[in-house]
Amino acid sequence: MNLEKFMRRPACEVRIGDVTIGGGHPVAVQSMTNTDTNDTAASVAQIERIDRAGGHIVRLTAQGRREGENLREIVRQLRADGCTAAVVADIHFTPEVAAVAAQYVDKVRINPGNYRNDRGQFEALIDTCRARGVALRIGVNHGSLAKRVFDRWGDTPQGMVVSAMEFLRICRAKEFDQVTVSMKSSNTRVMVAAYRLLAEAMEAEGMRYPIHLGVTEAGNGLEGRIKSAVGIGALLADGIGDTIRVSLTEAPEHEIPVAQLLVRHFADRPGVFPVRHPERYSPTEYRRRSRVAVSVVHDEPHDGFRILEARSGNPTAELRAAILDLEPADAPVMVACRYDEKDLETLAVKAAADLGPLLLDGLADGIRIDAPGHTDRELHDIELMILQAARVRFSRTEYIACPSCGRTLYDIEKTLAGIKARTSHLKNLRIGVMGCIVNGPGEMADADYGYVGAGPGRITLYKGREVVERDIPQEEALDRLVELIKRNGEWTEPDAGPRGAARA
């Protein structure tokens, strides 16, 4: 017999400036600037806003040597202003810039997909970081694995783990423990599986490096918050995670209250729940437990479903244990939980974090949120958003939209709002809205259509993974995107009703 209970995964302490993570410290929240890193005043002002909001770790892109060198001036001005926020340099395409940035910042994030591990570059970076007391993040992105990894493993959770472990083993060989690791994806199922596999792989090799959580390109508004809560919540419920970022296509300081809410929500998860049939659940392998084809919300037909309602302060573990002990094992289940939250956003985030993981893992078949004070329509919509974030039912257009950073080549918030206004009535489509080509094509790989910044005022459109129109003026891009959808027979007018059935 197994026991379902909450335990934080043990992690060694890593110091990032004045912030320490791991070692029993509370989960830290962080964000990333969307200013031009060459614009010192704008970057400093935004970092200070994020810090005041409670995000004491802030990342900036350093895509070239000029940006890397300007980090010195940004840090100097921050400290002169009395701001103690930990500053992190994000290095993507140019490993040489990491050595520059490491002279000035508190932490350097590198993407192993852009390093070769046979040239000594990473080992040299470790030496530089050790000399200054700078931390490292091994930041694996689902959409940008190294070719040698992709050719063998594809863009799979297993490939992501292989990529991370290569570099973590180098850190261990050099006895450098000021390292964190992340496994980000815009696909919540891929993201959760990758982190769980990583935790298993590190445990098998006796590694205790802290883990940073995040769902990339989650979008904006309530949908973006719910998508992040489902992915991050599934891992926090497992005790995985030492820092988090909620990536929203909004002002970065808007991310902080959502992340803080998740941290508070998982600060204490009481209860121990016996499980007689642990063999029915594999956290790293998606398996549908029942034969229900389409997951449902509370006001849709669910005759024959078992309704399991959480009663404890640990709904995820309580309901998972109850589902695993059901007889027959494939009995359809609707999971339910009551919330007294008056604020709709708070309700949505908590319900997504508690109940979304059960849908994401294929254990539940329906969802019911009980929340006095909110309308049936509001609850219906939130439940559908949770089903979509858990990737078990798509009932509306999904926007895989990056939060933007200093690499972004256009006003992505305004653009996303315009694309939503024209396309949100469509059903079962996924549209990627990406600021640049760094993560864009990879992270939106499962999108039906893509809108990607190609240069100042220029956009490239994708159909799936294929470029359809390259380098077109942005003022024409939205109309051209609509025309592309029409040419492929996937357009309906706003008053024409739903297009097709929901898809998983």
Could you provide a short overview of the structure?
By secondary structure, this protein is an alpha/beta fold. It is 38% helix and 20% strand. The chain contains 15 helices and 21 strands.
What labels would you give this structure?
single chain; 504 residues; alpha/beta; eight-stranded parallel barrel; five-stranded mixed β-sheet; 21 strands; 20% strand; disordered C terminus
Q: Give the helix level as a range of percent.
A: 25-40%
Structural class: alpha/beta
Per the principal axes of the C-alpha atoms, what is the gross shape? globular
Low-confidence stretches: 496-504
- Report the span from N to C terminus: 33 Å
Strand content: 15-25%
What's the alpha carbon Rg, rounded to whole Å?
Answer: 22 Å
Characterize the main sheet: 8 strands, parallel, barrel
Oligomer: single chain
Q: How many β-strands, per DSSP?
A: 21
The overall pLDDT, averaged over residues, is: 90
Spatial order of the strands forming the largest sheet: 4-5-6-7-8-9-10-11
Number of helix segments?
15
Which SSEs are present, and which pair or pack?
Blueprint: E1 2-5, E2 14-16, E3 19-21, E4 28-32, H1 40-53, E5 57-61, H2 65-80, E6 86-91, H3 95-101, E7 107-110, H4 121-132, E8 135-141, H5 147-153, H6 157-173, E9 179-184, H7 188-204, E10 211-213, H8 221-237, E11 243-244, H9 255-265, E12 272-275, E13 296-297, E14 306-309, H10 315-324, E15 333-338, H11 344-360, E16 366-370, H12 376-389, E17 398-401, H13 412-423, E18 430-434, H14 440-443, E19 449-455, E20 458-463, E21 466-473, H15 474-487
Parallel strand pairs: 4-5, 4-11, 5-6, 6-7, 7-8, 8-9, 9-10, 10-11, 13-16, 14-15, 15-16, 17-18, 18-19
Antiparallel strand pairs: 1-12, 2-3, 19-20, 20-21
Helix pairs in contact: 1-2, 2-3, 3-4, 5-6, 6-7, 7-8, 8-11, 8-12, 9-11, 10-11, 11-12
